[in-house]
Task: structure prediction
Amino acid sequence: MLALVLGVLQAKFFGWPWPPGFWWLAGAVLATAAAGYLVNDVYDQATDAINRPARRVVGVHVRPLLAKWATGLAAILALSLAVAHSKWLLGWVLATLLALWAYAAWLKRTPGFGNLLVAALSAAPVALLAHSSLPWLAPPRLLFTFVGFAFGSSLVRELIKTLEDQPGDRAAGCRTLPICWGEIPTKNLIYSLLLAFGLAVLWAVPPHLGGAQAAFGLVIGGFLLLLARGLRRAQEPAHYHRLSQWAKLMMLAGLLGVLGL
Result:
């Protein structure tokens, strides 16, 4: 997904072919994300054994020690690529690696803070590309729309995942929003975010525009309605998992839609 984010942005804003510096940037971002996924799986072995036993990797197919070594190697690769690119990218990679570690070790188990962190990191590639290239060449409205879409869609999906992961989170003593607030208040928060998301899409894609712009608005609006309807009926972890997959599809549709805006 991150590779697609960076590729769509580079192609839309700055055209082809991609400059050499883009590959250093993309490689550093992807290696950082890999380290984040690995360290998260290492810390989540107990909860994953309850929430997704059939999809566990660390502790079943891969030894925890090997996963820790792989995490370190991914982090070293990310730092090396960042050094080859620029000092500011090195600073971003260092800060992000620390944030991902804090998320896996602590913030994921707090009400809301971990969800906001992941959403912010999902929108970070947009800022990275803008900083490394020439941001004034990109229409500000489109740039803000993309940042907001990446942040909002990721936040919605993260909150849905907290609903899905309640059994394992309760057993592990986590204090996520559904556990602290309850399931209904968390759903109401997601409804509010979906409504705000829809209004933001209307602002970003005015209804009088036609062609690709109108199609983008209709597709995203359809996903938002589908998520709201499914959320109202969801009660079991399997229901929330399906909603999480729909949110992924919405994110993919949004990224591809940027090419037509």
In short: The CA atoms of residues 130 and 138 lie 8 Å apart.
